[in-house]
Amino acid sequence: MRSRPPGRPAAPAGGIWLYGLHAVAAALRNPQRRLRRLLLSEEAEVAIAVRLGIDRGSAWPVPVERTERARLDALVGRDAVHQGAGLLADPLATPSLEQALSKPGPVLVLDQVSDPRNVGAILRSAAAFGGSAVIVQDRHAPEETGALAKAASGALETMPLLRAVNLSRTLVALKAAGLWIVGLDAGGAALVGASFTGRRVALVLGAEGEGLRRLTRETCDEVAGLFMPGTMESLNVSNAAAVALYELSRRPVQIT
Fold it and tell me: Facing residues of 35 across strands?
């Protein structure tokens, strides 16, 4: 069983606390999300009502409990930037690979990326650039948490997040589904989106510092890097994902 980070309050069994205006509003709009409790400050209630298009006196997806920020500090953690909004909900069900691939666009595969904020930011970039799914390795990836959802800024509710027990076998399954597997690594030739015209791409990113593991790299069809003419040798993994997705989005995605 995974231990809870020190100082973080526990949610009721089976539930997680989502927080922040974007994350909470997106979860309230998601019919697949089972909602339990909604705690809002007066200011947050007004802001989320605007996002949801709820008029004064209209019914909310779950009853609103008016609260003070100090109470939310105690529920989601004093360091959490909750903006006066907290939502207790159940984790989302994990879709199958077949379901995720029914949506067009590139797939992102994360090889032992463990920081929830990085995973959340990658979900946000995938949603922004037309990705179809994000796949993480189950044993070395964060659970669904408020921090991950906050970093995703609502994308957790719309971008499928899959967990793979064996990442290499999942890459083989993606190949069988017709995807071209591209590992992102500084040692590869520059990634050029136009070169993948007519091919659907699965982009594989490794953990910061360690990069792609040997077996993961060997399973890729090719390895590519980012063109960086400046003085920095590398980027944070979530920034690298955003740049790579932008480059891929510059060519038309054709699914056959």
Answer: 89
- First vs last Cα of the chain: how many Å apart? 42
Q: What is the dihedral of CA 116, 122, 128, 130, to 10 degrees?
A: -130
Helix (H, G, I), strand (E, B) or coil at 203: strand
pLDDT in tens, 86-113: 999 999 999 999 999 999 999 999 999 9
Angle between helical axes of 42-52 and 21-29 (0-180°, round to 10): 50
| CA pair distance 242, 236, nearest whole angstrom | 10
- The C-alpha angle with vertex 203 and arms to 117 and 191, in degrees rounded to 5, equals 110
Assess contact for 101 and 107: CB atoms under 8 A: yes
**Apex 246 CA angle, 140 and 132, nearest 5:** 55
Q: How far apart are CA 256 and CA 228, in angstroms?
A: 32
Q: Which residue, chain included where needed, has tokens 């015209």?
A: 197
Residue appearing with tokens 């609260």: 67
Q: Which residues sit opposite 86 in a β-bridge?
A: 19, 39
Half-sphere exposure at residue 216, Cβ-oriented, CA atoms within 13 angstroms = 24
Q: Is the pLDDT of residue 6 over 50?
A: no
Residue 64 identity:
V
Q: What is the Cα Rg of the chain in Å? A: 19
* Nearest-angstrom CA–CA distance, 214 and 199: 24
Phi, psi angle pair for 183, to nearest 5°: -85, 135
Per-residue pLDDT at 3 exceeds 60? no
Question: Does the pLDDT at position 69 exceed 50?
Answer: yes
